[in-house]
C-alpha cells in the first residue's frame, strides 16, 4: 500500500504501449505509437519523439556535426545554429526521461492497482454471482438512489457563486477526456449494445428503473476504450501467460494548458486558428455576433450535425467549435469557452500592437502562453482552495517549490473517474439569466437544465453571453448536502442526443468507476492515510449523517463494498471546503502533481520574466469578464457570492495585465537575451551542448521566446545574426 506522501506520483504509473502499437486502438483518428526517443547519429530526418522531419524548412539551417539524438535531446559537440523564433514543446515530449508523461492518448495513471473480477478486464458487478465480503454488489441503479432528490429541495450555497461549479467542469475538460469504445456490438459478434442487456464487451448495460422493479429494460453503456495492449487486447501484443490489466486512456494532455481553448491535437488546433489574420487570432463565428463581440465558430460544414435545433426547425443543428468537443453541453460551459476565445483575441491584438515586428505565429503563441498561465493561476490560486479548504490545501498541495522531475503529472484514473466528479453534486437544476440590474430577466425566464443540453441556439437567440454571466456571478451554487446530493435534472432527465432516452448521471458515474476497475471506498481511504470504516458507527461519524450511513450499509452490506465515488461524495465536508477528506486528498494530490510536474508551469522562473509573473498574479477571472463582456461591474472575486450592487466593483477598479512588460526590445536587429533558455533537469551528465527536440508546429506549449535573427552559441550565448530574420 502506497503511503500518501510516497505514492505512485513519484514513480510514474502511466501505461506505456509496446513498440509499434497503435495508440488509439479502436478509435477514429488512429495515431501510431512513436518510440519515445530513437538514437542515431548524423541525420535529422529520424522521426524521433516529436521531431519534425523537415527542420530545415522550419529554420534549423546551420548545424555542426556530429549530431546525436539521445533520450529526446539534440546533442551537439560544437554547434552554432539559429533557432526559430519560438522554442516550443510538444505534448508528447514534455519530460526528457519520461516523454509520455502527461501526453494525450496515453493511459490514465494508476495510484492503486485496478480491481477486476477476472484480474484483467471484467469490472466489479460483471458476474452476477460474484461475491464481495460474502455479498453481491448492488446494481448501480439502486446505489444511485442514495443520492437522488427533487429539484425543489435544493439548498443554496451561502458563500460561493454558480461560477465556482462551472469552472470546475470547465477545468475537468482541460485535463481529461476518456474515449469510449466505438464498437457497437460485442467483440466477435453478437447483438448491438443498444439492444442487448447482457454484459459482453464493449457492452456493460445499466439497469433501468423498470428492471429494478422486475422488468427487463436496460440502458446502453459502452465501456471506455482500453489502452493498447491491456486487458483482453493484451493477448495480441504480449505473453499470453502474463496478465496485463485493462487501462483506460486520456484523450487530452494532462497539463493545465488551456486545451479547452486550443485543443490537444494539431488537427483541432488547425481548425481553431484564423490563418488569414496577421495578429495570431482564433476563428470566430462568421454568422452571429453578440453586440459586436465574438461567438465561438460552428463546427466545419463536413462535421456531423449533433446539437439540438431551434424550435420550429427540422433536423439537428451545428455545435460550437472549441478546443474541447463538449463546449456545447450546457450554456454555462459555452459561456466560459466564449470568454476565453475573446480573451485570446484581445491579448493577441494588444500584443501585436506592442510588437508590430512579430509574426502572426509569434503573436498567437505569446497570447496562448498567457492564456494558459491564467488558467493555471485561477485554478490553483482561486478555485482549489475553495474546494479543498485551507487545511487540506496545506496538507496536500502546499506552496510551490519549483519543478520536480520525479513527479508524474499524468491525470490519475481515480481523480478523473471519481474524485473530480464531486462537482456533479454541486450542479444547480436551473439556468439563471439576469438583467442589467442582476434581477430576474423579464424576457429570459429561468430554465430547467434539461431544456438547455446541447442547445447553442439559446445563446445566439436568447440574449447572448451577458445574462448568463450575470446569473453565474450573482446566483449561488448548489450546496453539497449529504441528503441532497444530485437533483432530478441529472438523475432522471440527463439528455444525450445520440440516445432515444434519458440517463441517470449517478448511475453513469458508478458504472464508469466499476468499468475502470477502481478499488472500493475503504481502499482509497487507506491510500490517503485515513482510517478504514468498519462499522455503522464509523460510517455515521465520517458522513455526519446517520441516515446516509444506514442507507449505504443496508445497500452494500459491508463498508469495503462501497463504490469510491459514492463513499467520497457522502463524507462530511471539511471546514471551509466543498469536499470531504477523501476527495480533498485525491484532488489535492492531483493538483500538486499537475503543478510540480509541469516544466512549463507559470511560476517556474524560466517561463516568464519576474515582471510578467507579477502581472499574471494580478489578473483574475473577474478581469477576464470585464474585458470580454458588457458588464460594467463585477465581484472582485468571481467565485464569491455577492449581492448587487454593494458587493460589485466597477471594472475600472479591477486590476488587469500591464502588457507593456511583454514589449520586446529590438534595436537594429540586435538581440537583448544573454543566455539560452534553461532546460529541464536530466539524469545524464554530458559535456555535449544539449537542446530539447521540438516540433515548431501548431500543437505546442511555449517554453520561451528567442527573438528573430538570433543564433545560439552553445548553452550560454544568444547573439544577433546579420541578415534576414528566421
From TrEMBL:
EC number of the protein: 1.11.1.8
SUPFAM superfamilies registered for this protein in UniProt: Heme-dependent peroxidases
Keyword annotations from UniProtKB, A to Z: Calcium, Disulfide bond, EGF-like domain, Glycoprotein, Heme, Hydrogen peroxide, Iron, Membrane, Metal-binding, Oxidoreductase, Peroxidase, Signal, Sushi, Thyroid hormones biosynthesis, Transmembrane, Transmembrane helix
GO cellular component entries: extracellular space; membrane
Gene3D superfamilies referenced in this protein's UniProt entry, alphabetically: Haem peroxidase domain superfamily, animal type
Residues binding heme b, per UniProt: 424
Topology of the protein relative to the lipid bilayer: Single-pass type I membrane protein
Subcellular location: Membrane
Function of the protein: Iodination and coupling of the hormonogenic tyrosines in thyroglobulin to yield the thyroid hormones T(3) and T(4).
Name of the molecule in the record: Thyroid peroxidase
Organism: Rhinolophus ferrumequinum (Greater horseshoe bat)
Amino acid at each position: 500500500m502506497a503511503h500518501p506522501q510516497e505514492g505512485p506520483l513519484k514513480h510514474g504509473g502511466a501505461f506505456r504501449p509496446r513498440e509499434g502499437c497503435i495508440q488509439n486502438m479502436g478509435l477514429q483518428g488512429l495515431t501510431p505509437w512513436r518510440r519515445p526517443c530513437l538514437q542515431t547519429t548524423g541525420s535529422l530526418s529520424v522521426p524521433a519523439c516529436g521531431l519534425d522531419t523537415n527542420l530545415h524548412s522550419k529554420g534549423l539551417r546551420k548545424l555542426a556535426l556530429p549530431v546525436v539524438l539521445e533520450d529526446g535531446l539534440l546533442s551537439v559537440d560544437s554547434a552554432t545554429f539559429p533557432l526559430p523564433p519560438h522554442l516550443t514543446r510538444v505534448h508528447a515530449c514534455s519530460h526528457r526521461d519520461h516523454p509520455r508523461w502527461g501526453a494525450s492518448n496515453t493511459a490514465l495513471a494508476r495510484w492503486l492497482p485496478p480491481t477486476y473480477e477476472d484480474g484483467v478486464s471484467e469490472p466489479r458487478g460483471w458476474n452476477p454471482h460474484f461475491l464481495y465480503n460474502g455479498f453481491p454488489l448492488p446494481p448501480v441503479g439502486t446505489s444511485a438512489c442514495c443520492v437522488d432528490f427533487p429539484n425543489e429541495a435544493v439548498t443554496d450555497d451561502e458563500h460561493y457563486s454558480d461560477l465556482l461549479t462551472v469552472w470546475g467542469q470547465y477545468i475537468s475538460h482541460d485535463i481529461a477526456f476518456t474515449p469510449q469504445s466505438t464498437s457497437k456490438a460485442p467483440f466477435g459478434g453478437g447483438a448491438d449494445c443498444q439492444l442487448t442487456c447482457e454484459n459482453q464487451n464493449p457492452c456493460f448495460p445499466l439497469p433501468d428503473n423498470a428492471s429494478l422493479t422486475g422488468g427487463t429494460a436496460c440502458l446502453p453503456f459502452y465501456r471506455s476504450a482500453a489502452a493498447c495492449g491491456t486487458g483482453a487486447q493484451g493477448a495480441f501484443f504480449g505473453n499470453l501467460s502474463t496478465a496485463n490489466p485493462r487501462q483506460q486512456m486520456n484523450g487530452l494532455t494532462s497539463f493545465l494548458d488551456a486545451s479547452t481553448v486550443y485543443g490537444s491535437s494539431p488537427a483541432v488546433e488547425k481548425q481553431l486558428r484564423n490563418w488569414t489574420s496577421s495578429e495570431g487570432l482564433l476563428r470566430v463565428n462568421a454568422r452571429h455576433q453578440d453586440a459586436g463581440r465574438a461567438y465561438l465558430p460552428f463546427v466545419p460544414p463536413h462535421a456531423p450535425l449533433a446539437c439540438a435545433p431551434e424550435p420550429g426547425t427540422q433536423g439537428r443543428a451545428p455545435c460550437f467549435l472549441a478546443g474541447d468537443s463538449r463546449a456545447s453541453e450546457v450554456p454555462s460551459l459555452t459561456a466560459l469557452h466564449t470568454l476565453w476565445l475573446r480573451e485570446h483575441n484581445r491579448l493577441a491584438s494588444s500584443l501585436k500592437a506592442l510588437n508590430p515586428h512579430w509574426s502572426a505565429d509569434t503573436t498567437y503563441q505569446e497570447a496562448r502562453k498567457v492564456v494558459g498561465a491564467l488558467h493555471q493561476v485561477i485554478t490553483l490560486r482561486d478555485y482549489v482552495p475553495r474546494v479543498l479548504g485551507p487545511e487540506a490545501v496545506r496538507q496536500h498541495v502546499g506552496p510551490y517549490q519549483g519543478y520536480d522531475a520525479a513527479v508524474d503529472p499524468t491525470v490519475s484514473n481515480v481523480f478523473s473517474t471519481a474524485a473530480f466528479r464531486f462537482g456533479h453534486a454541486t450542479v444547480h437544476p436551473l439556468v439563471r439569466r439576469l438583467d442589467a440590474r442582476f434581477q430576474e430577466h423579464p424576457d429570459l425566464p429561468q430554465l430547467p437544465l434539461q431544456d438547455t443540453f446541447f442547445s447553442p441556439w439559446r445563446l445566439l437567440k436568447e440574449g447572448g453571453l451577458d445574462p448568463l454571466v450575470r446569473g453565474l456571478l450573482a446566483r449561488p451554487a448548489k450546496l453539497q448536502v449529504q441528503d441532497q446530493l444530485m437533483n432530478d435534472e441529472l438523475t432522471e432527465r440527463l439528455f444525450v442526443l445520440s440516445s432515444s432516452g434519458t440517463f441517470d448521471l449517478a448511475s453513469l458515474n458508478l458504472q464508469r468507476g466499476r468499468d475502470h476497475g477502481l478499488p472500493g471506498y475503504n481502499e482509497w481511504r487507506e491510500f490517503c492515510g485515513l482510517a478504514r470504516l468498519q462499522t455503522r458507527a464509523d460510517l455515521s461519524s465520517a458522513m455526519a449523517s446517520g441516515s446516509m450511513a444506514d442507507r449505504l450499509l443496508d445497500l452494500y452490506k459491508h463498508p469495503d463494498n462501497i463504490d469510491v465515488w459514492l463513499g467520497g461524495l457522502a463524507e462530511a465536508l471539511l471546514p471551509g471546503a466543498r469536499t470531504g477528506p477523501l476527495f480533498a486528498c485525491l484532488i489535492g494530490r492531483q493538483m500538486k502533481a499537475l503543478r510540480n510536474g509541469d516544466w512549463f508551469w507559470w511560476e517556474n522562473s524560466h517561463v516568464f520574466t519576474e515582471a510578467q509573473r507579477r502581472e499574471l498574479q494580478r489578473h483574475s477571472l473577474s478581469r477576464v469578464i470585464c474585458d470580454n463582456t458588457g458588464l460594467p461591474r463585477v465581484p472582485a472575486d468571481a467565485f464569491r457570492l455577492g449581492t448587487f450592487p454593494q458587493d460589485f466593483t466597477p471594472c475600472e477598479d479591477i486590476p488587469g495585465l500591464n502588457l507593456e512588460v511583454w514589449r520586446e526590445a529590438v534595436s537594429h536587429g540586435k538581440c537583448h537575451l544573454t543566455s539560452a533558455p534553461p532546460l529541464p533537469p536530466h539524469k545524464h551528465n554530458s559535456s555535449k551542448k544539449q537542446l530539447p527536440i521540438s516540433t515548431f508546429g501548431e500543437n505546442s506549449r511555449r517554453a520561451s521566446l528567442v527573438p528573430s535573427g538570433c543564433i545560439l552559441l552553445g548553452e550560454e550565448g544568444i547573439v544577433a545574426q546579420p541578415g534576414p530574420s528566421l
